[in-house]
Please model this.
Amino acid sequence: MSVTSKQQLGQKGEDLAEQFLRREGHRILFRNFRYGKSELDIVSLQGDTLIISEVKSYHARPLGAAEYRVDKHKQRLLITGTHGLLSEHPRYNNLNIRFDVIIVDFSRYPAKITWHQAAFWDEQGWNED
Model:
């Protein structure tokens, strides 16, 4: 799969995930927020919770669960990106933070969305020194 088709698949998956989150009552704040090497696919607000959603999309089932592609390294990148988001947008600092993983399975029609709420958390807390 070329980089272009991977990017197109990722974009399509993020579009479906965004529609799904809106139906679940989320207000979308950012798409593809970048901070350093980090990229946050979807940042949304639901009540008093800021939700960082990592979206994984595929056409052919991966070996093992797709959720495992959000490994500790990827989690650290997402947490770092969230720190960056909060430093650039301090109005969100007093909100609860939740990290979700959304899997979009295009190997079937219609695409199947699997939503893992609170898939991981920042074990070290927000005050890393």
Observations:
- The mean pLDDT is 89.
- The chain has one domain: 3-120.
